[in-house]
Amino acid sequence: MALLRLDNVEANYGAVRALQGISLAIEEGSIVTLLGANGAGKSTTLKSISGTVQPSGGTIEFEGKPLGGLTTNQIVKLGIAQVPEGRKIFKDLTVTENLNMGAYSRKDTPGIASDLELVLDLFPVLKERSRQLGGSLSGGEQQMLAIGRGLMARPRLLLLDEPSLGLAPIIISEIFNTLRTINKEHRMTLLVVEQNANVALKNADYGYVLQVGRIAVEGTVDELGKNKDVVNSYMGAQE
Amino acid sequence: MFGQQVISGLATGSLYALTAVAVVVVFRNTRTINLAQGDFSMIGAFMALIFIKDLGLNYYVSLGLAVVFCIGLGILVERLVMRPIADSDWLTLFTATLGVYYILHGVAGWFWGRDTKAFPVTFDPTPIKVIGGLLSQGHLINMAWAVAIGAALYYFFKYTKQGIAMRAVTDDPETAELMGIPVRFIVLLTWGMAGFLAAFVGVLIAPIIYVAPEMMDEVLIKGYVAAVFGGLYSIPGAIVGALLIGVTENLAGGYLGSEFKTVTAFIMIVMLLAFRPQGLFGIQHRREV
Amino acid sequence: MAEQNTIQTRTDKLKQKFGRQNWLAAGVLFLAALAFPIFPGVEGWMASQASLIILYIIAAQGVSVLTGYTGLVTVGHGGFLAIGAYTSALLTKYFAVDLLVGIIAGGLMAAFIGFLLGLIFLRLSGAFMAIGTLGFAFFIGTVANNVPIFQGREGISLPPNRILGLEIEDLGFYYVSLFTIGLITLFIYGIVRSGVGRAFMALRDSERAAESAGINRVFYRTLAFSISAFITGVAGVLNAHIVNYVSAEVYADIWYSVDFLVATVVGGSAVLMGPFIGGIFVVMVPFFFETLADFAYILKGVVLIAVLLMAPAGIADLLARPFRALRRRQLEQAETGSTNEAKP
Amino acid sequence: MSAHLHCENVTVSFGGVVACNKISLDVEEGKVVGLIGPNGAGKTTLFNVLSRFQNVDEGEVYLRDKPITGLKAHQIIQLGMARTFQNINLFNEQTTLDNILIGAHRLLGNPFADMLALPSSRRIEAKLRDRAVQLAESLHLQGELDNLVRNLPYGMQKRVELARALAAEPDIILLDEPVAGCNEEETSELKAIIKRVNEEFGITILLVEHDMSMVMTVCDYIHVINFGANLADGTPSDIQTNRDVINAYLGEDH
Lengths: 239, 289, 344, 254
Prior knowledge:
The structure holds four protein chains of four kinds. By secondary structure, chain C is mainly alpha-helical. Chain C contains 14 helices and four strands.
């Protein structure tokens, strides 16, 4: 059974018809990537999963339980955390405070403390800066903090919205290495939304390519890597 | 003379500060300028007066009960009035608190009358010498309370989960929601805190001024002015602003004449808004207002 | 191009069909107001009360230009009321000017100060604008209290009112107020329907898009401030002359400013009728509950909150809804009746 | 002949982060030119520079050889350049007709005459209204003239915004993501309208857009920017096969 299953999900974003029937399945323990050019509906898909956008049609199931009607903080409690697009660090909170806010819905104080150690080990640069304000970090550091904050919820499924956005290639590969570590060593399932197809395909197991609110292509990363439609969906080539 | 003016200015300023902090906390988490903040204090003062005079309770017990009452009042206002219109434009939120102001004013006048009442002074009236000036014990005790509450707030915002969450909501409510922080609950907490601070201001200021429905009007205005010093956003900015207003108006009153006392704050605010609309501390307002 | 005037929108048709009715209704109301003093049982003091209501409405109209149409919230229009009142009072006292001169001078002085305030607060909006204007009203109050020429709480007593050389009492004053509000309402009607009114509303709805459309933000913001201050300043002149007395006791009171804002919000801030309903509400509530002042406060608060919860666009909008629906239905029937509108 | 719109070494930075780094580009008279690039490439900043919501640190922008970086936002339209906004920026509380009329603000004449409804301004007003209605008809909005724009469907709001820009009688229009959020039907409708605006009205167009198939079919010429700097430029078919561009979109090592 898939950990997360979307069945024909439709969503309107304000007046915009952003999703026109998305179906996908994420197996436990895998890294799945959702690709597509800007405006294809990637972020809206994530928002539908986390409950910040209410789908207007279709169903979303997590471990077989439908998520419809749940509030965002209930969904977080079920074990779905999110690393939002553009990092969205709390700028006026310190690094440690930011990380603790990721664990807001948890009650197990010792568990939170040990996870904090874990995250700081995973991202040593955050340990150095643990008392600095989130807003004072560089872009790459903020992205690490955003991921760390997501991990602090100890989720079953971590959603990442364009973790490579605006970062230098070397930082991007560092971040994706860490994501693979998290996936392997902690058996955490990841759904990575990316515009940067190459880096995503190199690191994921399975991928979906979105095009204007629909899934255009899907397959294993090897299949997608060879599929010319992937490039075309980005570059707008006709046929 | 100068030292004394400054110290008693700081004493009044510290009460403005508590009001200003409440204004800031509510504004930055709900976009609402709470016009009823002063009346929360006024109700608190009346409640304390009843507890002390009519029920014969101890001063501290009365203070505690007034605080509990005002927290309840803040929460009630959030649930009944503000929550249904939480997504409205700024003017709607503002005028809604004006409605609350009118109601609390009317209720106070209805139950307790319009005439001013003395608040039983429980402190030794002999002034004490402090750094070259004489200061009443009441003023000193008020300052001590203000410092203690300030320390408690610092602890709350720095070290407690809900306090940090409250700051996170200020910073970015949408992301806070994504992290599983129940933003509505935090907003409720914010209004509770406004009530908490209001009760202290009301009870502490009552022996200095008097108790009446309009007792807080002028203090509240100065609270706003102080809050604008921090761009309606920064708590330290609001506290510094409040102390600055307390001292400046006291000096203006002492050296230029009492008629200049009240106008000082407004000259300061008009100048500040004209030249540094983002507040004295250079903080950009985070959200469109 | 020969058919230039044949292009009609639905609004045009509505105007054509019902515009006459609207003007007729307004005319009847105006005539009724003209005839009001000769109704049996109406006494002089009632005319005076009516003048009071009118001047409140005018003041609220001033607020609606700024807050309703331009989107700049003001809690400081009591300051412009005071400026209008004192300008005319001083001119009357020292130069024995005619009331007409007083009205124009009071309005212009307020407009000038409003222009300056608009410039000073050019960068403010929302909460900051509200607090800034509040500070302005307090400042004006303190000036009235402390600058000798304004004679503080003692106040300035004025001679009986003369307009166009004629001495007038309560009744005459009522007619002056009535004509003033008539002119001001036409003035606002004209602005709202002009490109200037559209520019105000464009700035309210989106400053960026407005600027991209070529609307000069500085010019139109200060213009809105000036017009708004002018109108409330005129109300101030009436307020001074209705009792022939001005004093800081009255004008240092911030609650004028707040009342005008309440009147605009309760009535409807961007509707022509809004200030009328709001103005009547604000004056009449304390009037009816004179012996129950506290109850009046509570009622005001409850009504204010109820309006915000249930009719955020104001009472005028609430009242207009059934009429709008009716007219729409009538028009649709008329359109389907004459089938020449059928689409290709 | 020199370009209709010309950017020269435009540089903008926000507190150390360089959003635009010496960007230069030309928009030829009468052409439809696309400006594309991955997220965060600096397109929006450049657009804001062009419409004067953003000051430059260095460089200059010329509109028909006239430098414009010293002008204010509301003065740009006087030079015949209008714009639309990314997420639709209409005057929501007003009707379609009023929105279009606000677009025609620069043709209004003396505001004081207008306010007092003097005969001269009444004539202007009548003319502007007739033109607004004609414009609405040509963009298939005639049925919506009296409706508040906030009640209109998305695709229609996009067209109202275009109509508002056209009402100023510009000779160049900047379109900020004209089809973002539109469905296929709305997209093809807007594509047709953009082509008509360019061909029938003879208006030069510079557009930023993410929908690549739209960019490729509509534009005569394309500029690509990445990390705030010029990356490539050429015809749509050049761009589609340009290695640098594909790498920029799909990630570094392809």
